Amino acid sequence: MTVRVPGKVNLQLSVGPLREDGYHDIATLFQAVSIFDDVRVALAEDRDRQDLFAIMINADHPHGIPTDKGNLAYLAAELMFNRFQLDTPIDITIEKRIPVAGGMAGGSANAAGVIVAIDSLFSLGLSKSEMEELGAEIGSDVPFSIAGGTAVGTGRGEQLTPALARGEYSWVLALSSNGLSTPAIYKECDRLREGMEISAPQVNESLMHALRSGDAKALGKSLQNDLQPAACSIRPALRLILDVGMDYGALGGIVSGSGPTVAFLAEDEDHALDLVVALTSSGVVGNVVRATGPVVGATVIDR
Ligand code: C5P
Fold first, then answer.
1. Is there an atom of ligand 1 within 6 Å of 241 CB?
2. Nearest residue CA, atom 19 of ligand 1?
3. Which residues of 266-285 are buried (b: 16+ CB within 10 A; e: fewer)?
């Protein structure tokens, strides 16, 4: 059973004050984009094997990606096995293309893939919303990885409402080979805002309007991420990347989620290609790729 799962960018990320449980209430607009991981789940050949889950990672740089409880895919498998009393060992193979710890919900996408694959493999018959609820127990971004499209996320980001988005958007993503830790970025955000009055998070109306009318120029101007100052504080090179992309005519540029991926909005595919060339030749970014959004969430592509 192979499930294809998309990465995401946050078109807006509004962060409220620190909650007592260590999370922050947020209001965010997610868009799933066309960078995909493939998660393959198969029954293990050795049905009497001790370990219920074996995770294999195929990636350009697989080192440092955990294959145990440190991987959200493992936690998702464990949750599904406990909840549905499954006991046949499975092999999980992840083809990784979404940047690791890149602010594009790559780990969450893998957990989403495991939930959807186990549902199909064991014929559990779960609805999408049931799978999203299970995903929320693993991480704040997992429900969106299952849902896909364009959606408003509230609460920790796990409460989703589909957003009306017209048209297709062309993105240029400046990837970093060194990831950033999401908890560290939220912590830095709290530090930078210490002593300030922080209001409840809200989705920006002009952004929603731009999306409804399919107006890429207006959307580019409305991109906004409260975690961006924190990501730039910890990784100052991101400011330079943002400046270069804007100098080369991007409609808008933003750190995606907790970073360090920087997402630039282009007018169309040709403009995106120009931006890729300009950013690559500027020498400030190693790896620049194009993606379009919105795309669908976790989908079974092979049985
Ligand atoms: O939910 P997830 O496991 O992806 O969150 C990772 C960490 O990011 C949390 O432990 C928390 O420190 C931070 N976080 C937060 N507020 C959110 C989402 C995540 O503070 N809404």
1. no
2. 23
3. bbeeebbeebbebbeebebb
**Which is catalytic among the residues 37, 38, 119, 141?**
141
Torsion of CA 8, 137, 93, 3, to 10 degrees: -60
CB burial readout 53-92, b (16+ within 10 A) else e = bebebebeeeeebebeeebbbbbbbebbbeeeebeebbbb
CA distances from 295 to 60, 170, 176 (A): 24, 12, 23
How many angstroms from the chain centroid is the CA of residue 82?
26
Q: What is the pLDDT of residues 173-195, one digit of tens each?
A: 999 989 999 999 999 999 999 99
Measuring CA to CA, which residue among 141, 220, 123, 216 is closest to residue 182? 141
CA of 268 to the centre of ligand 1 (A): 33
16 Cβ inside 6 Å of ligand 1: no
Q: Which atom of ligand 1 is nearest to the CA of 24?
A: 16
Nearest CA to ligand 1 atom 20: 23
Catalytic residue list contains 190: no
- Ligand 1 center from residue 183 Cα (angstroms): 6
Could you give the CA distance from residue 102 to residue 110 in angstroms, rounded to a whole number?
14
CA of 184 to the centre of ligand 1 (A): 10
14-29 tens-digit pLDDT:
999 999 999 999 999 9
Q: 141 catalytic, yes or no?
A: yes
Please, what are the averages of pLDDT over each run of 10 residues along the chain (303 residues)? Answer: 98 97 98 98 94 96 90 98 98 96 96 98 98 98 98 98 96 95 98 96 96 97 98 97 97 98 97 96 93 98 92
Q: What is the CB neighbour count within 10 angstroms for residue 122?
A: 18
